[in-house]
Design goal:
Structural class: alpha/beta
Strand content: 15-25%
Shape: elongated
Largest sheet: 8 strands, mixed
Low-confidence stretches: 856-902
Distance between the termini: 160 Å
Mean pLDDT: 83
Radius of gyration: 54 Å
Strand order of the largest sheet: 7-6-8-9-10-13-14-15
Length: 902
């Protein structure tokens, strides 16, 4: 006789019915040799005291009748009642086979069992506890990033909230299906608002039908959502849904044991215990446990281990808890049973990892016009805690997942985002390439729209947001994309991923200074009056030198005999004086100086004058050309704040505007704090002296700048700011735009009339924005890290900055700093060409003058003939020999000279 305590909880009807079938089967199958005296204890799942009292009362009765229990068969599932049963059997040392839900660590009272206690306190998880493990398998297989798991009372999921998808990067929510079916659509709406796209429904077929029909009411059957249905029932899906595709998983009968199940079901009414898989589990568990106890009794395990010391509930103390050693119930359960299983054999290892072996059949059910049109077999999932999924069509399985489509809002701002209607996404740019790379890693799709007001996001005085931030707060978008700065107030309402772009500050954009050029710029070094004075001094000095040489008795022309032995004999007529003064101003020098002292004094004065003029001209020319390039009135933010000719402002509602507004507010607060301190009547005389200053000690730079910006007016967009910059009269008068350095440097690179001024300040990183609490943050962070490791972000920078087709090659002023440009010095070459031209004209004039003006005064001796060859003749003027073969003899003014042959 086997004395048994069967403990169950209210509502677990399947276990009760299955035990009845087992008792009937034992009674009618005499060959088993089993005789079981069963005591039932039923308690409320949440009422631990009531079930403890019932257990103690039943246990005491059995002890009083000298029939202590050989086994406690525990069918409680979870909750405080189940834990009370575990505590009761552990404390009193009663062999127990439990069908409670839970994996390792979930059974609190059996969490730290000793090795000898693990031998007789055995837990085997029912199918309802194993079936949800298929969700983990599907999530890993299909790379699902979010999951809404709904269940009814056919499943118990209390212990699954953390364990089911532990260490899996999937945002999930486990929720019990609302018993009020009219509220299920609202429940689905709340899950959709939480961005749940993949739904897993665990329950009986009736509950599944209600959920699917509620989903149809909310239009949740499209490519953005995927539905997975798991049931313990053996039937098919029925739902009033016109067009839906559902992945359906239900138990698959093992053909090896189907005859046994049919026999027991028909003969002993096990077929009336539904779901079939649960009824079979409890039937096989009870029968296997009874046979194991019978074998232990026959083997004498009870006598060998002296299992006779029992302690009542009233006498129990931790010190006198019975100790059982070598009472290895687990090993007897692991032996092959003489009775074959009705559904599947047991895999018994450790508590929490033991279960009945079975399979789930996976199909894609196509519901059309409220009826199952067809189904496509995906494969079979074998019960267990590993990824033991056997797929027949892996590709079709992948296609059954929800098409993850995120809504992206963006602000068009080059080079981060361009608009291009010829592309599928209608946009291109740095950020578009970035989101494409992330989408390839995370396997999702996206649709991108331009934010309505064109703003990144700014908060007003009432705490209301605009732009991208507002769309994310209102759940109108999943992702905010663009050159979006990470700011503290933004992080209070949304989340940012890790930065994808380096720290970016604010800088100044101005119109490029136009450097005036002139081919004769070297002439503008001196004013016209100075040039005229120099020219007058030149003629006056030349004339004066000619006069002195003309009238001085010591000059060459008036005293030739004195200087007849000098090598250089120069007569300073007016022509020579002009030539002398001109060449004296050149490095070549003026040549021989006058012989007379007065003339030399004039020459010396002219040399000193020329030296000073040339030196001054040379120095001023270099300085003049250099200053013209370096004449930039604004070089920093401080320079901008100290002047009034150039107006400046950022774009309205931009992060730059917020920065200046905040800085001005801080200065105002500092001033109020300083004023309150300095005017505090409670200060002592000594403290008041320390605060006595003539001026406010903190700079009010940003206050003045903010006031100037408000008076100037804020451009509504970047295009408006650029127009104002380009309309400036010059770099020293007009408008300067303050904005993000990346935008400004791109504008400088793609246009030749703009320039960046000053260093960056208030540097902040760029990042992708997501909804607050969105799992995309962690997923995007991992993807961005991968892109960093692969140096993809550097490649994107190279593509959209250095190799951008819109980039222009401009001649910048900085490129001219090593020398003088041809535009400014080209006039010198023109002077050379003009001089050469004048020389050519002069040569022609000389030739004409000599040939035509001189011929009338020359008489050729053409008739003089020589009768003999080689006759030498002497010129009367030079005394040189003359050869008739070399020229003709001519007579001019009574003197003989040689005229060359023509």
């Amino acid at each position: 006789m086997i004395f048994l305590v069967f403990v169950n909880e209210e509502g677990n009807v399947v276990a009760d019915k299955a035990i009845n079938v087992v008792m009937n089967y034992i009674k009618k199958t005499t060959k088993l040799g089993l005789s079981v005296d069963l005591k039932r204890v039923v308690g409320n799942r949440t009422d631990s005291q009531n079930i403890l009292d019932s257990l103690c009362a039943t246990y005491q009765q059995m002890l009083d009748s000298n029939a202590p229990p050989h086994l406690v068969l525990d069918a409680t599932r979870t909750g405080s009642a189940s834990e009370t049963v575990k505590s009761f059997t552990l404390a009193l040392g009663l062999p127990t086979v439990s069908a409670s839900y839970g994996q390792q660590g979930d059974l609190k009272q059996w969490r730290n069992l000793q090795p000898n206690e693990e031998e007789y306190l055995v837990q085997i998880s029912p199918p309802g506890d194993i079936i949800p493990e298929i969700i983990r398998t599907l999530v890993l297989n299909q790379n699902i990033t979010n999951a809404a798991i709904l269940y009814d009372n056919a499943f118990v999921m209390d212990h699954k909230y953390k364990a089911l998808l532990q260490n899996v990067a999937t945002r999930h929510l486990i929720d019990e299906i609302n018993p009020d079916t009219s509220k299920i659509p609202e429940q689905l709406d709340s899950l959709v608002k939480l961005d749940m796209k993949n739904f897993f429904v665990l329950g009986d077929l009736d509950t599944i039908q209600i959920v699917l029909e509620s989903a149809e009411l909310r239009k949740l059957f499209n490519r953005m959502y995927a539905w997975h249905v798991l049931t313990k029932d053996a039937g098919d899906i029925k739902a009033s849904v016109p067009n839906a595709t559902v992945l359906f998983a239900k138990p698959l009968m093992n053909t090896r044991y189907q005859d046994r199940l049919r026999n027991i079901g028909n003969t002993y009414q096990l077929s009336n215990v539904l779901p079939e898989i649960d009824g079979s589990f409890y039937f096989d568990l009870a029968l296997t446990a009874f046979l194991a106890i019978k074998e232990m009794l026959l083997d004498g395990s009870w006598k060998r281990n002296n299992v006779t010391n029992f302690v009542t509930c009233d006498d129990y103390e931790p010190k006198n808890s019975p100790k059982r050693f070598n009472l290895n119930l687990r090993s007897y359960l692991q032996k092959e049973s003489p009775e074959p299983p009705t559904y599947g054999p047991f895999s018994i290892t450790k508590n929490g990892l033991s279960y009945m072996e079975f399979s789930m059949f996976l199909t894609a059910v196509y519901v059309r016009s409220s009826a199952s049109d067809k189904s496509l077999s995906f494969g079979v999932w074998h019960a267990g805690f590993d990824n033991n999924l056997t797929l027949t069509t892996p590709k079709d399985m992948k296609n059954n997942t929800a098409n993850v489509v995120y809504r992206v809002v963006a602000v068009v701002q080059k080079p981060f985002i361009y608009r291009d209607d010829n592309l599928p996404k209608k946009f291109k740019g740095y950020c578009i390439d970035l989101i494409d790379e992330i989408a390839n890693i995370l396997q999702f799709d996206y649709e991108i729209v331009e934010v309505g007001d064109g703003k990144f996001g700014n908060m007003d005085e009432n705490g209301n947001w605009n732009g991208i931030i507002k769309d994310l707060i209102d759940k109108k978008a999943d992702i905010g994309l663009g050159s979006l700065s990470v700011m503290a107030e933004r992080e209070n309402v949304i989340d940012f991923t890790m930065p994808y772009y380096d720290l970016v500050g604010i800088t100044i954009l101005m119109k490029l200074p136009e450097i005036p050029t002139s081919l004769f710029k070297f002439l503008t070094v001196l004013e016209n009056e100075v040039w005229l004075c120099i020219l007058a001094a030149y003629f006056f000095t030349s004339f004066l030198m000619w006069v002195f040489d003309r009238w001085s008795p010591y000059s060459y022309q008036n005293n030739r005999q004195k200087y007849k032995d000098d090598e250089e004999k120069r007569e300073f007529n007016l022509k020579e004086c002009l030539w002398f003064c001109m060449t004296s101003l050149t490095p070549q020098g003026g040549g021989e100086a006058p012989k007379n002292l007065s003339g030399r004094l004039v020459a010396a004065i002219w040399w000193l004058f020329g030296f000073i003029i040339i030196a001054s001209y040379t120095a001023n020319l270099a300085a003049f050309l250099t200053v013209s390039r370096l004449d930039t009135p604004i070089e920093s933010l401080d320079d901008l704040s100290k002047q009034y000719k150039i107006q400046y402002a950022p774009i309205n509602s931009s992060s730059t505007m917020t920065y200046f507004q905040r800085m001005a507010d801080i200065e105002e607060r500092f001033y109020e704090i300083w004023k309150d301190i300095s005017l505090n009547d409670s200060l002592s005389d000594v403290e008041r002296v320390k605060l006595a200053v003539w001026d406010y000690p903190v700079s009010d730079k940003y206050t003045k700048m903010w006031q100037a910006m408000r008076e100037t007016g804020f451009p509504d967009n970047l295009e408006g700011a650029l127009n104002r910059v380009r309309d400036s009269k010059s770099s020293a008068e007009g408008f300067a735009y303050l904005g993000d350095a990346t935008d400004i440097r791109y504008l400088e690179a793609t246009s030749c009339d703009l320039t960046v001024v000053g260093e960056e300040f208030s540097r902040k990183p760029y990042a992708i924005a997501v909804q607050q609490g969105s799992p995309l943050k962690d997923q995007f962070n991992k993807a961005i890290l991968q892109l960093l490791n692969r140096r993809e972000l550097e490649r994107l920078k190279e593509k959209w900055w250095n190799k951008n087709p819109e980039k222009k090659q401009c001649e910048k002023a900085d490129e001219q700093q090593d020398g003088i440009s041809i535009q400014n010095i080209g006039g010198v070459f023109i002077v050379i060409f003009v001089g050469i031209g004048l020389a050519c004209v002069t040569l022609a004039f000389e030739y004409w003058w000599y040939k035509y003006r001189k011929n009338s005064s020359v008489t050729n001796i053409a008739g003089v003939q020589r009768q003999y060859t080689g006759l030498d003749m002497l010129s009367k003027q030079t005394g040189e020999r003359f050869n008739e073969n070399e020229g003709e003899l001519a007579l001019k003014s009574g003197k003989m000279y040689i005229k060359p042959r023509q």
